[in-house]
Amino acid sequence: MVLSLVYIYIFIFLSFLDLLTTAVIFAHGNQWNLLWTDGQGYNFSTSFVDFWIFPVVRTSLAIGAAFGILRNPIQGPANCKKYEWLITFVSAVNLYYACIKLLVYSHDETFIAGPKLTWFWVLFAWSLIGSALFILQWRYGTIQSGESQQNASINTETSSSTDGLSDTAKDPDEKTFLELVSRATIGKMLSYSVPDWPLILVGTIFLVGASLGQIFLPLFVGKVITAIVQPEHQSNFVNIIIEMAGIAVAVAICSGCRAGCLMYYMQRLNIRIRNALFQSIVVQEIGFFDEVRTGDLTSRLTSDVTTMSDTIGLNFNIFLRNLIKAIGVCIFMFALSWRLSVVTFLGLPLIFMVSKVYGSYYKKTQKVVQDRFAKANEVAQDVCSSMQTVRSFANESGEISEYKQRLFDVLKIQIKQAMSYTVYVWCTKEFLLVFTLWYGGQLLLLDKISSQGFISFILYQEELGECFSEIGDVYTGMMQALGAAEKVFELIERKPKLGIDDGTENPKQIQGHISFKNVSFSYPSRPDQTVLENVSFEVNPGEVVALVGPSGGGKSSCVKLLQRFYEPTAGSVCLDGIDVSSYEHQRLHELVSLVGQEPVLYARSVRENIVYGLDSDQYSEESILHASKLANAHDFIMSLCDKYNTETGEKGTQLSGGQKQRVAIARALVRNPRVLLLDEATSALDTESEYLVQEALEHSKSHRTVLLIAHRLSTVERADRIIVIVKGKVEETGSHVELMEKQGTYYNLVYR
Ligand SMILES: Nc1ncnc2c1ncn2[C@@H]1O[C@H](COP(=O)(O)OP(=O)(O)OP(=O)(O)O)[C@@H](O)[C@H]1O
């Protein structure tokens, strides 16, 4: 309330100051008698009286606003804010009116020579200053008092209500430019550009050179055209062309060097950010990948990085180039004709306004276009990834018409966009030019501009329009880049909840003793669902232990904990008595190897898949052959076209399920791990192959602990010991014979 009152007082004070200043200017200039032009009545081209209109309108609006806020201190400021358009409109009319008066007076020789000129300038200047102050006081007065009232009312509410939407959770599209900049995103982007400062510097020097050169070109074009059409200037033609050619060559050289330097910088920046992002992604904890979609990560790595790195480089280039050009062009325009320049600057805000309306309409429709395109892409993606299903249901034409329909939905919006663009071009492109031509023609007749100057002016005006429009595009591009950058930096700076650099233990050799001590566990993505509850068991060195139990009981989760993919919520998982979290990441995975349920092969050769993750000094040709033979993979690999060099295709699709499993077993064995984890590792093998693999593992078992998960009885009954896990708890432990005699859960599982 108090703050509102302060703002109201400031409001009224500034408005009266506005009136007073105008009155003082009139009084001091002894211009009261000029109100009606020395008693001859009002005359637009000589009278000053209309300069009173605007202070009076401003003061009336300010008093109205003050009363409004006084009557309703909570809603008042917000209501005033609704009328911001009126304030902008009044100020704009004031500006236009003052400038038109300026142009009219400037044609009156007696006025220019007379005593009224000084007072006109003072009134003109105050008219503009008063308008600017009025906009500022309205904008900040109503916003600040509104915010303070809102804060006060929020503080007094007993239940604090927030919408629960953290700032980072907001869509970048919804954020303002300042919001994005204030997150220091630009600073971070620039910090990644620091190593390229020599490139940027050289590029900028060429950019400045090219821009300065380009500023002179319209001037020369004007001279050339004048030399062509006016016979008295024809002797200059060749000289002008030579000078112009010199400038054009210099501009071309500078532009080329600028483009090369800045493009190379953009590419280096792109690679640098991509590397940083990928480095950050691969060290994130496994739980992170459970929650984040792969598509989101790849889109960060591809489109977001490209958007931010290209846009920062490109926009820096475009912005600086156009800024230099715009300043130079303005100087030339005012030098050629200040009157035409005033006309241009009166026309530009109108064009900006139309552009703004068009811009926000385009942005709104573009969102719909993107959504509809995404829907069309869903169809394409689904079809491409499941072509066999489409073919087997003979639904090709159905999918084609579905895709066509979704693209047609996009087209419907794009038709509206095209129509609005047509109207936008009508409104912005030619009106200003026509008016400039008309007014320039008058000035030409009055001999206030030369024909060459007039031609150059028109060219400069076009150039200025292009500069502003490109600067406007930079703003849009920057918004996109900042939005993309924010997402990218969020990921680059993310600290993994389970770091891979936490452990320090690096024993040369271990016995291979596994122990789970009172382990409870929930997946981070489902913290409310207990997957393991107080699980305790031990596996002795050299022992083969099978985990069995109904599906979803928690067997694979035990294996994941032993690999330290996740941390238990309670208890500890130890290897030779040391918690697995204390081992060095690299060492732990040398000692413990896993063959998972669905082994993943990479789009590389069989050999590269087997030695995946090993340095060249960690394996030999013999060790690859030995591991492949143990995994019963050697014979089928030798029958492939390129033997060990055969490509396996994306995710190993060029191999059968059983072949993939055998390559995966060889990959685990080539490391000669002390602990081997087999999670349904032989499920896709035929009985014969499985028997051979089991035999091989049996032979190597003396120096290796094996923890296996299997559903097949033939696999399980060979184990030294069986642990039955049901609903996250250990129900039974013993050998096959012992558990069968017990006739408990295991017995039932076997018979079912
Ligand atoms: N990444 C995950 N995020 C959340 N929950 C999971 C995840 N992986 C498994 N679960 C859940 O944890 C529980 C135990 O799963 P787990 O894979 O350990 O069972 P399992 O005994 O190995 O089953 P199966 O024999 O079918 O492989 C299941 O309810 C499963 O839905």
From TrEMBL:
Alphabetized, the UniProt keywords read: ATP-binding, Membrane, Nucleotide-binding, Peptide transport, Protein transport, Translocase, Transmembrane, Transmembrane helix, Transport
An annotated GO cellular component of this protein is:
membrane
| UniProt-listed CDD domains | ABC_MTABC3_MDL1_MDL2
> Taking every annotated instance into account, which residue ranges of this chain make up the domain ABC transmembrane type-1?
201-480
Sorted alphabetically, which SMART domains does this protein's record hold? AAA (SM00382)
Name the Pfam families on file: ABC_membrane (PF00664), ABC_tran (PF00005)
What is the recorded name of this protein? Uncharacterized protein
* Species in which this protein is naturally found: Ciona savignyi
